[in-house]
Amino acid sequence: MRKRLTYVLLLLIVVATPTHAQRLTAMRDSVAGAYHFWFYEPASKVSPNDTQNVINPSDLALSEKPLFVFLHGASLQGSNLQRVRKYGTINAIDKGMNIDAYVIAPQTRNGWDATKVWSLIDWAKAHYDIDTNRIYVLGMSLGGFGTYNVASKYYDKIAAAMMICGGATGRDWCGLCKMPFWLLHGTADRVVPLSRSQEIANGMKECGDTSRLIFTKLRGMDHGDPARVFYLRETYLWLLAHSLTDDKRKVDRSYEITATTLKNPYYWLPRQNTSLVVVNRAAQTQSSSQVTETDDNETPDVYIIKRGDNLIAIARRFHTTVEKICKLNNIKNPDYIREGQKIKLK
After folding, report:
1. 76 — phi, psi (to 5°)?
2. Distances in Å between the alpha carbon of 143 and those of 66, 138, 197, 304, 335?
3. Which of 65, 97, 208, 332 suits 12 as a labelling partner, its CA being 20 to 30 A distant?
4. How far is residue 155's CA from residue 297's CA, in Å, rounded to a whole number?
5. pLDDT in tens, 267-321
6. Would you call 187 helix, strand, or coil by DSSP?
7. Any residues with CB less than 8 A from the CB of 315 and at least 6 apart, and which?
8. Buried b (16+ CB within 10 A) or exposed e, 69-87
9. Angstrom distance (rounded) from CA 200 to CA 170
């Protein structure tokens, strides 16, 4: 099946200090009346050695880049911006995830005001080449409430949002129905109970259209466990799969995040001093994936692992599951596969 590919997410995972010009800057008093924030600028160029596994390196030359806005939880509140680096998107970048997009990570002292958050986005648009069709918001706990605030008010300006173990501060459900919106919540959460996300899902149902909603209940996870979502490549790939220009703003349901997926969210970290470039593309259709769709009759009996592969992507490509691949090949840990390894698919 032919699919229209819309963007490239580049995740550079390196051991040594990168040679490209990415930059993380603490911004204080840059926007009057708003929050202090971290601002991440993606690499302006990629060295020839880094692009050896890029599907189409010329795409990296696009001047406009998407923008992610990460909203932290209550534990990171205050006036010390370094706290914002303890977990979340900025911490993932600190660990080696190099996202080919701009990132804003503000710090609040007491809750999230949607207008103030949007003033930071306006600042970024005024100073950088932001792809205004690809602005994304994601947050956890208090940041989940903040995600609700921003997404419900600016649903026509945000391409997609992901809300983790949060809740609603009002009853503005209907705007959320008009955008791709992913709710994730631990079933064992005793700090912000699952019922707070269920309330949002129920409210959206009252509006009559939940076709753009994904509601994932993370079985057995408490309030802190879902923070691992910020370290999954799938999180950012799912967000990037959406644009304001999408036909009817359809939601991509090809990505899966479960309690099992989150057991090891750091599978992309380098091992044995290797340097790796992984590029994924996301399509705009509801059934899109970051890999080329393959019919069942094209599935080979044996597949040879290539650099950058992981079992999640392989299973999605060949319409199977990680569990089946592991069982067929007696793989004990799905995160440990090697380049050149042969695995059975049937």
Report:
1. -105, 10
2. 20, 8, 13, 41, 30
3. 332
4. 41
5. 766 543 333 233 333 332 333 323 223 333 457 888 888 766 777 778 777 878 8
6. coil
7. 321, 322, 324, 325
8. bbbbbeebbeeebeebbeb
9. 10
